[in-house]
Amino acid sequence: MDRSEKLETYYEKEHPFKKGIAFLRELALKTKAKEDFKWSIPVYTLNGKNVFGICKFNNHFGVWFFNGVFLKDPKKVLENAQEGKTKGMRHWKFQRLEEVDGQTVLAYMNEALDNQENGMELKTEKTKKVVIPTLLLSEFQKDPSLQQAFKELSPYKQKEFCEHIAEAKQEKTKLRRLEKILPMIKEGIGLNDGYR
């Protein structure tokens, strides 16, 4: 399925927020952004840079602003996408189509595009040295091919796997997570590749 088919499938699929995301798309298409499809959602870009995306979930739909931290947000509607994990991304959530003020949403979209044109974007920080959890190190000792597969992953993917185990509070959760990621490491699949 090519990109345009994926876009149409996303917008045409029956969902409680089908009309809501269709309206957001109408607004997005009035901007100078180019419509794309990444991470299983429609993403709107400018000069190859991600500016905003339109997404739907079980309980809400909305607009993700990749560098939303720079938006003025006069209506105070933007939320940090993942508190503590994302620095720049902001999300504007809606539960009903009637909540969407088209003129205001379009203004936010255009401001985000202007900010991108003006080079306002958070630069990604260099990944710190990965601290490999003891549980994973012991698996490497048992299986050198696993260690080799881990070394072949990008530093970002290595970090994701290590944090996934380390962030678990209980030992049984750490073990369950370890069991889940071992085949992924061997196959060279990143923890969140399904969302990219």
Describe the structure.
- This protein has 196 residues and is of the alpha+beta class.
- It folds into two domains: 3-117, Aspartate Aminotransferase, domain 1; 134-195, no CATH class.
- The protein is 43% helix and 16% strand.
- The protein contains seven helices and six strands, in the order ααββββββααααα.
- Strands 1-2-3-4-6-5 form a six-stranded antiparallel sheet.
- A hairpin with a 2-residue loop joins strand 2 and strand 3 (49-56).
- Helix 4 packs across helix 5 (144-152).
- The longest helix has 17 residues, at 171-187.
- The model has no long low-confidence stretch (mean pLDDT 90).
Largest sheet: 6 strands, antiparallel
User: What's the number of extended β-strand segments?
Assistant: 6
Return the CATH class of the largest domain. Alpha Beta
Unreliable sequence segments? none
Derived structural class: alpha+beta
How many structurally independent domains? 2
Characterize this entry briefly.
The chain folds into two domains: 3-117, Aspartate Aminotransferase, domain 1; 134-195, no CATH class.
Tags for this entry?
single chain, 196 residues, alpha+beta, Aspartate Aminotransferase, domain 1
Write the layout of secondary structure elements.
Blueprint: H1 3-12, H2 18-28, E1 34-38, E2 41-46, E3 49-56, E4 61-65, E5 79-80, E6 90-94, H3 102-117, H4 134-142, H5 144-152, H6 155-166, H7 171-187
Antiparallel strand pairs: 1-2, 2-3, 3-4, 4-6, 5-6
